[in-house]
Amino acid sequence: MSITLLIFFAVAGMTLLGGLLAVVLKDVFRAALGLVLSLLGVAGLYLMLAAQFLAAAQVLVYIGGVAVLILFAIMLTKNVRSPHQRSWGSSLIPAALLFLLLTPALAIIAMQIAGPRPLGLDEQINYIDELAHLLMQDYMVPFEVVSLVLLAAFIGAIVIARRKPEYEDEGGEVDDK
Amino acid sequence: MSLLTIILFVLFAPIAAATIVMFFGRFLPGKGAPISILGLFISFVGSVWAAVKVFGGETLYQSFNWFTVGGVTFQLGFLVDLFTVVMLLVVSTISLLIHIYSVGYMKGDEYYHRYFAFLGLFTFSMLGIVTANNFAQTFIFWELVGLSSYFLIGFWFQRPAAAEAGKKAFITNRVGDAGFLIGIMTIYMLLGTLDFQSVFSGLAGMQQAGMVTSGLLMVVALGIFSGAVGKSAQVPLHVWLPDAMEGPTPVSALIHAATMVAAGVYLVARTFPLFALVPDSLTVVAYIGGITAIFAASIALTQNDIKRVLAYSTLSQLGYMMLAIGCASQTAGIFHLFTHAFFKALLFLGAGAVIIACHHEQDIRSLGGLWKRMPVVAITFVIGGLALAGIPPFAGFWSKDEILAVTYASGDYLLMAMGFLTALLTGFYTFRLIFLTFAGEPRSDHAAHAQKTPWVMSFPLVFLAGCSVVAGFWGIPGQEWGFGPTIFGSGISVSHAIAHHEAGINWLVMISSIIIATAGVLIAWWLYGIRSDGDEWVAKKLKLFDITKPLSTLSLHKWYVDEIYQMFVINPVLWLGQFFYGVDRIVIDGLIDGSAAGTVLVAQGSNAVDKYVVDGAVNGAGWTARSIGSGLRRIQTGVVQQYLGFVALGALGMVIVALFLFL
Amino acid sequence: MNLWDWAVEKISYLFNYTFNGLSPAHFIVVAVGLFGLGLFGVIARRNAIAILISIELMLNGAALSAVAFASAWGPDRVLGHVFAAFVITVAAAEAIVGLALVLNAYRRFGAIVAEKVNLFKW
């Protein structure tokens, strides 16, 4: 059992634990915090896979952006919750069953596909350079397109989340107020 | 002109005339009678011409193929020899005379033209019988004669008695014809041909070769004889003849005196070679003839209707003819037929004249004294009566004497006794009739005011009276040119009795017959000529003996034969008919109703099937779709998470499949 | 060979594999686990934001698995990284829009309980 392995198990454990907390905790706020833990763990795993850029991006975008946003949304909608509500839906048991069945199956399949090989990480290669090369040359178009996607998302979100007082109709309609 | 052509004229002139008269007679002058008479005249002339040719040595035996069915060819053929010619002469002459007579007798009748048409048809049929040369053709014309007699006897069909009489004649004939047909079919079965010559020689050959039993030949002979029994009204099929007097008197004269009843005798004489093969059949023929003769004569004793007396007399004389043939003498039989035709026709026509003159009064007890008012009729009638009784030199004597001689020669004394007894009775009843009708004083107004007879009726009477005198001379025994040798000495029919004939005159028989006949006449004269109350005297006298009253009753009531037939034959048949009608109604109708009910049942079943099965299937399909649908739509809850759950489920499924593929 | 022996063999192999040096399989297991947890959360949770959180988990799992596979193959070893990058970006965009919707829904319904939003119901 080498050090690497130990670190892996620690980080992996953190990731999974965070995920578990995210789906199990009744309090949404705490669930969001569990998400944050999980995201951190994933970043660490990225590092172990020599995806340094991705690790940084993960922390910056996911945790710094998405998680914060979620927390804000939770705080904005927090007053609604009443103690009498159930936090679990009617599909609990099927969901659990599904999880228990699907996860091992997928894992086995994936492992079969991957095959029994060691982690082929080469210290000589600069993976960031490689990533940059791909992004800027072969996958230029998706790169630009995805920026458009982000733009669309921003505009859409602003439109959707606008406060429209005395509005009786279904939401989503653009209205000049 | 060839003999064949002449014969064709002889045959077809009457029927052509009959056809024309039947359809157009109403519109023609004289209502068609002249045309009929013309046709008959042609036939008569043809017969004479043919006779001349045949006596000159010509004969005709020719057959034509008529049609072929299934490998069997039916032929038409003509046989003309001396025998045929004699018959032709008799038939055409008497028929012509009766046609002329009928002009007067049937004057004013509503269906005058139909009468002449039927007369023509009848003559044609009779001529057809005597010229046929095979059994099939004979049978065809045989039936035609029966049919014509039905028409003629029942001519005044509005009278129920006449219609019944017509029916009776036809049906009784039919019974005899059934036997005839059996005989014919047996012949066909044995030989495969019906041609006379082939049959006679064929059967003789078969008998000699031992290929056919006497029993079978007996069947053939008796079969043919049964046809003759029916046609010639022998016992036991005699019952139609007396009733046939319901027809017009000329019809009685034609049919019953001269021709139709003679057909039976002709048939037996023509097919004599067949009978000769089985001598026992001849015995049957003789006895039936003899029994008929006595039986009929006994009835004639007490009858009071002119025509009835004559009818039974005819029966009796026919018996004589059969008796003669049964004693193996075609000569005697046919000779008697020949003479009898003339004097019996004469008697009938004379009776007809009397009837017309006395306003259709037919009961002789109401007649009398007519000799004063109708001398011609009276004289001719007496001549006929003398011929009938067998008094020389009239025709009947010669033929009757011939018959008696033959019975004597046959050695059967019973037959001879029958013959002589009948002769006695014949003389008696004939002159009883004559005396009661013509002699003495009129016993009724009708008789007292008898009308004059028209010449169309008197002429035939005179002519026939002449024939009654001279016809007999042809048969003077022992002569080479006599009837027997001439007619039967050569050609197809051979008479066994020629030997007897040539043996000379049998004086014993001849004298005896004269004595007996005269005795009968004298007794009648004493009872009815001298005494005017003959019947009552006899009745009184016989009451003393007490046994003959029943006999005379029997005689008067025709020995109750008709009643016996009605009870034992006719009623059972009618009952059977009713029975089968009931069966038919119940079974057949039951079947039909049953099948109808069955069909209805099937239809209902089919309907039920359609309703429950077919509709059920259709409805079931609909119900299934709907229930599945309404069950499945619950999945669409609107809760998106559940939709995702199903997606995941699907994904799981694919993963598992992939697992199995990869593992 | 009976079941017990087979099981023992399989488990011992598994143990050997797990604890004898890293391999892509390790990371894949984690990624799949994240994905499964996220799926469970999406289906089972009632709160809409909780559902969004679970969605983020799933996306993360997907991205991680891409990177894990990338390490296993060449020559374009970093293709997985590209994929993961795009996933992160799109996930962010989606989170933005989703939360905007949640806010809107909250304002309308007064609650953000997923089961109540069932206009698709038959």
What does this structure look like?
The complex is a heterotrimer of chains A (177), B (663) and C (122). Chain A contains six helices and no strands. With 177 residues, chain A is an all-alpha fold. Chain A is globular. Chain B has 28 helices and two strands. Chain B has helices spanning 3-24, 33-55, 82-105, 112-131, 135-153, 160-191, 196-209, 214-231, 240-243, 249-258, 260-270, 272-277, 279-300, 306-326, 330-357, 370-373, 375-389, 395-410, 413-438, 445-448, 455-470, 483-488, 498-502, 507-530, 534-545, 548-556, 561-632, 640-662; strands at 60-69, 72-80. Chain C is built from four helices and no strands. In chain C, 55% of the residues are buried. The interface between A and C is large, with 90 and 82 residues.
Features:
heterotrimer, A: 177 residues, mainly alpha, Four Helix Bundle (Hemerythrin (Met), subunit A), 6 helices, globular, C: 122 residues, Helix Hairpins, 4 helices
List the helices and strands and how they pair.
The complex is a heterotrimer of chains A (177), B (663) and C (122).
Chain A: H1 3-24, H2 28-48, H3 52-76, H4 92-114, H5 127-138, H6 140-161
Chain B: H1 3-24, H2 33-55, E1 60-69, E2 72-80, H3 82-105, H4 112-131, H5 135-153, H6 160-191, H7 196-209, H8 214-231, H9 240-243, H10 249-258, H11 260-270, H12 272-277, H13 279-300, H14 306-326, H15 330-357, H16 370-373, H17 375-389, H18 395-410, H19 413-438, H20 445-448, H21 455-470, H22 483-488, H23 498-502, H24 507-530, H25 534-545, H26 548-556, H27 561-632, H28 640-662
Helix pairs in contact in B: 1-2, 1-4, 2-3, 2-4, 3-4, 3-10, 3-15, 3-21, 4-5, 5-6, 6-8, 8-11, 8-13, 10-15, 11-14, 11-15, 13-14, 13-19, 14-15, 14-18, 14-19, 15-17, 15-18, 15-21, 17-19, 17-21, 18-19, 18-24, 19-24, 24-25
Chain C: H1 3-18, H2 24-44, H3 48-70, H4 79-109
Helix pairs in contact in C: 2-3, 3-4
Can you tell me the overall shape of chain B? elongated
* CATH domain class name of chain C: Mainly Alpha
The major pleated sheet of chain B works out as: 2 strands, antiparallel
Strand proportion of chain C, as a percent range, falls in under 5%
Assembly status: heterotrimer
CATH topology category name of chain C: Helix Hairpins
Domain count of chain C: the total is: 1
Shape of chain C: flat
Number of helices of chain B: 28
Strand percentage of chain B lies at under 5%
Distance between the termini of chain B: 124 Å
Order of helices and strands of chain B: HHEEHHHHHHHHHHHHHHHHHHHHHHHHHH
Radius of gyration of chain C: 20 Å
* Helix segment tally of chain C: 4
Overall mean pLDDT of chain C: 86
